[in-house]
Design a protein that fits this description.
The chain is built from 10 helices and 10 strands. The protein has 311 residues and is of the alpha+beta class. The structure holds protoporphyrin IX containing FE. Protoporphyrin IX containing FE binds next to helix 2, strand 2, strand 3, strand 4 and helix 4.
């Protein structure tokens, strides 16, 4: 109806995510509702300052706060459920001046849609494809006519053994400018130092519903969880404004530094409710690309955040 279509697409996206989850759920995110937080630090590599003049990349160690999450707006989704993919990782770096910057990434290299409108088309197709709908269902038609969406759903990895054995991808590109004024485009990659380890289908079927959310704090009581933060550098001619355009694997990977998680966060649920990560909260030396999906994210996240706080 007209009232619905007059809403900004970012708000329609949040409404549709909520509807797909059979929500709203009081106090939870409209997407990536189920999560767990941890804290630690980030130490940049010697090379990082040559990529960007951003304050957290100049040598000193910064405190970090991290939230891992399952996909969907369902706060009770079992961690090994196929719909709980992709996993999410959100990182907040505290900067020397007391400000902060965020990285918000997923467990798949790529995105199913090139624009927020196209993403809404996919979500609406899923919403119109209930069990009673005859084939070809709207979602089947959408996937058949959108190769990037098909690639996304077919390359989803199985659930990880642990959040400490899961790799994450930035998907959206940013422009990194160093002190000499040289700019390069790149996409984040976060690689677990414990190695990437995923469950077989049989193993996934045996996990308890909260196995990942339970395992992380238990692990951190005994040992640290470390990740390398890398940047995949675009070649001239690589599309930096389209999150469905996956760059070839032979592109240069620069090491930006090491993220070390040391402790669980006390009262994770309350901490999760009150924090909103924002991929466009950026310091000097890092700027957004013109990727329309990236540029739509803060508005969608703010709608979800304001609804969560209003509860
Ligand atoms: C137009 C496209 C997108 C829409 C509409 C969307 C929507 C949302 C919403 C509504 C939330 C909840 C935010 C909150 O309440 O704080 C969220 C969280 C999240 N999104 Fe997106 N998203 C989009 C694209 C992406 C992309 C491209 C990525 C990663 C590459 C991503 C990764 C995440 C992660 C990891 C979270 C959880 C953040 C947290 O732990 O607080 N999203 N998304």
């Amino acid at each position: 109806d007209e009232g619905q279509s007059a809403k900004p697409v970012t708000e329609q996206l949040v409404d549709t995510l909520t509807k797909l989850a059979n929500g709203p759920y009081k106090g939870y995110r409209a997407n990536h509702a189920k999560g767990i937080m941890a804290q630690g630090s980030f130490t940049p590599s010697a090379e990082a300052a040559s990529i960007s003049k951003a304050p957290h990349l100049q040598g000193a160690t910064s405190p970090v706060l991290v939230r891992f999450s399952d996909a969907t707006g369902v706060p009770t989704i079992p961690d090994a459920d196929g719909n709980a993919m992709p996993k999410g990782m959100a990182i907040r770096f505290t900067l020397p001046d007391g400000g902060s910057t965020d990285i918000v990434v997923i467990s798949v290299n790529g995105f199913p849609a090139a624009t927020p409108e196209e993403f809404l088309g996919l979500l609406n197709a899923v919403a119109a494809s209930g069990p009673d709908v005859a084939s070809p269902k709207p979602v089947e038609q959408f996937l058949a006519s959108h190769p990037a969406a098909m690639k996304f759903v077919t390359t989803l990895k199985p659930a990880p053994q642990s959040f400490a054995t899961q790799a994450f991808y930035g998907v959206n590109a940013f422009a990194f400018t160093n002190a000499q004024g040289q700019t390069q485009y790149g996409r984040y990659r976060i690689v677990p130092m414990a190695g990437e380890h995923y469950l077989t289908k049989e193993e996934a079927a045996k996990q308890t519903p909260n196995y990942l959310m339970d395992e992380l704090p238990a692990r951190l009581e005994k040992q640290e969880a470390k990740y390398r933060i890398l940047l995949q550098i675009a070649d001239a001619g690589d599309d930096v404004d389209n999150p469905t355009a996956i760059w070839p694997e032979d592109r240069k990977l620069v090491e930006l530094g090491t993220l070390t998680l040391k402790n669980p966060v006390a009262d994770s649920l309350q901490a999760e409710k009150s924090i909103m990560f924002n991929p466009l909260m950026l310091p000097e030396g890092i700027a957004p690309s013109k990727d329309p999906v990236l540029l739509a994210r803060p508005a969608a996240y703010a709608v979800s955040y304001s609804r969560r706080l209003a509860d």
